[in-house]
Design a protein that fits this description.
Blueprint (H helix, E strand, L loop, with lengths): L10 H15 L8 H22 L10 H10 L6 H4 L6 H4 L12 H23 L2
Helix pairs in contact: 1-2, 1-6, 2-3, 2-6
Length: 132
């Protein structure tokens, strides 16, 4: 039996799912491609950001462009820390590196960076979601 699920309009469910993606991104099994770990890190950051939209009662487009999502939040009055904007580089992991042949292999260092950024974005998002 998996974890308790909340309704999809509850930002805590998006945070829960983002944490699941982050946990998968930490899977250092040598049989797992780094590109797939980066995809999971990107998904963790994306779902965390979208949780902030939900908490604020705002609609978001179903896109993977993290910079665009953050700019929309900023246009609606939310100050976005510079370290959260670092996640914009993860957008490539949602599509370009996700499929074979569209990009070269991801290096270990880049993958570790993607996971670190996702973890920071998720902590930022969780702070917003847990505010009264």
């Amino acid at each position: 039996m998996g974890p308790k699920r909340l309704p999809p309009d509850d930002p805590r469910e998006w945070i829960r799912r983002a944490k699941s993606n982050l946990a998968m991104s930490l899977n250092a099994d040598p049989k797992v491609d780094l590109e797939d770990l980066c995809f999971e890190a990107q998904q963790a950051a994306e779902k965390g950001i979208k949780a902030v939209f939900i908490k604020r009662g705002e609609h978001f487009p179903f896109i993977h462009d993290l910079e665009r999502l953050l700019r929309l939040l900023e246009l609606n009055g939310l100050k976005i820390p510079r370290y959260v904007y670092e996640s914009r580089e993860q957008t490539q992991y949602a599509h370009v590196t996700r499929y074979p042949g569209l990009a070269g292999p991801v290096k270990t260092r880049a993958c570790r960076r993607a996971v670190r950024i996702a973890a920071r974005v998720l902590r930022w998002a969780e702070r917003h979601v847990n505010r009264p």
